Amino acid sequence: MIYLDAAATSAVRREVLEAMWPYLTGDFGNPSSHHTVGESAARALADARASVAAWLGCRPTEVTFTSGGTEADNLAIKGIALGNPRGRHIVTTPIEHEAVLESVDYLVRLHGFEATFLPVAADGLVAPADLAAALRDDTTLVSVMLANNEVGTVQPIAELAAIAHARRIPFHTDAVQAAGWLDLDVQRLGVDALSVSGHKIGAPKGIGALYVRGRIPLEPVLHGGGQERGRRSGTENVAGAVALAAAARLATAGRESNAQRATEARDGFVSAVLAAVPDARLTGHPTSRLPGTASFVFPGTNGEAVLLELERHGVVSSSGSACAAGSEDASHVLLALGYPDDVARTAVRFSWGADVTAGQLVEVAPAVAEAVREIASLGR
Ligand code: PLP
C-alpha cells in the first residue's frame, strides 16, 4: 500500500513521539501548578514555544498554542476582527479552508460584518490588483491562505500582505498545508497572523499554533482560566506543544532539499499521469504549487469511485479535501476555479511527505490509468 494522502494527515514521527513521551508520563504536570511537577511542564512549554517561534521567525510571546489548524484559523479571524475596532469588512478568498470560510460566515451572520471574496484564476492564484481594489477604509482583516489544500496553489503572500499593509490592514495566512515545504518566516512573508497544524508535519492531531504580531489586539475565542496570556484558555497540551516543536525542528532541518526532491518527484508523477490518462488535467498552478500535492480531474469518471478503485490497487488518495469527506457536494475550491460541477466531481488528490521517492510516485501512474479506465468504462 502506498499512502498518498499526506495533506489529510501524517503519521507521528518516531523522534516526535520520543520527544513528547515524557510529558505524557513522568513529567505530566499542569504548567499552572506551583510545584516542581508543574514547573517542569511549564519549562517544557516555554521551550516548545521558543522552538515554534524560531520556526516562524517571531517572538515566543507571539505564539499561541491551539488544538490545531481549525482553532488557529478561528482565533485569527474572529479574534482579530472582533478585537480591532477599525471596521466590519473582511477580505478573503472563496478557496480557503472551511475553518476560515465558516469563521467569516459567523462574523457576517452574528456580528454584522461584510465579506468580500477575491476572484481566483483557473490556476488558483489571487491577483494582487484585485486585493488592492477590494480594500476599504473599514476593512478590518485580510485572510488569504499560503497554499491551497486541494489543488496546492501557492499564493504570492508577501506581495498581497504588502498591499494590505499599505492601508494598515492586518493580514492573516493559513499556512497549514505549506508547513514543512515552504519558508514560514513571518517577517519574510510580511504577515501579521499565521496558522499551523501539527498533524500535517508528523506531530499528533490536536495541536497547532497561531502567530499574531505583538501589538495586534486579539479577542479570545475560548474563555476560562486565562492560559496562553489570556488568548486561549484551557490547560495547555504540553506534550502536544513539545511534539509540534519537535516536528517543526525536523521539518526545518531538511526543508529545502526535501522540497527540491519532492518537486522533481511531483513533476515526474504529473507527467506520467498525464501521459497515461489522455483526458486527465492537473488542477492548480503548474509551477507555483506545493512540492507534495498533485490533484487531477478525470472527466467522464467520478472522483470518489476512482479513489475506491485506486485503493484496490494499493494506492490511498483523496477525492477532495478530507475535511469535506462524506459530503456529496463538489469541491468549493474547484467550483471557484471555474470547473463545471460535473468535472469538479471527478477530482482526485495525491499528496505525500518528504520521504516519498520519485520512483514510488511514477509507479503509481499505471494504477491511476487503470482505475480511471475501469470507472470510465462503467460510465460513472
Ligand atoms: N487549513 C487548511 C489549509 C487545512 O488543510 C486544514 C486541514 O486539512 C486545516 C486548516 C485544519 O487543520 P486541523 O485539521 O488541524 O484542524
Report on the structure:
The protein contains 13 helices and 12 strands. The relative contact order is 0.16. It is 41% helix and 12% strand. The two termini are 25 Å apart. Strand 6, helix 7 and strand 7 (193-197) form a beta-alpha-beta unit. Helix 1 (14-20) packs antiparallel against helix 8 and helix 2 packs parallel to helix 8 (238-253). The chain is α/β, with parallel strands linked by helices and 380 residues long. The mean pLDDT is 96. The strands form 3 sheets. A 7-stranded mixed beta sheet has the order 2-8-7-6-5-3-4, with helices on both faces. The protein binds pyridoxal-5'-phosphate (PLP). The site of pyridoxal-5'-phosphate has 15 residues, from helix 3.
In short:
The radius of gyration is 21 Å and the shape is globular.
Q: What topology does this entry show?
A:
Layout: E1 2-3, H1 14-20, H2 36-56, E2 63-66, H3 69-83, E3 89-92, H4 98-111, E4 114-117, H5 128-134, E5 139-143, H6 157-166, E6 171-174, H7 186-189, E7 193-197, E8 208-212, H8 238-253, H9 255-276, E9 281-282, E10 293-297, H10 303-312, E11 315-316, H11 332-336, H12 341-344, E12 347-351, H13 358-377
Parallel strand pairs: 1-11, 3-4, 3-5, 5-6, 6-7
Antiparallel strand pairs: 2-8, 7-8, 9-10, 10-12
Helix pairs in contact: 1-8, 2-8, 3-4, 9-13, 10-13
Bound molecules: pyridoxal-5'-phosphate.
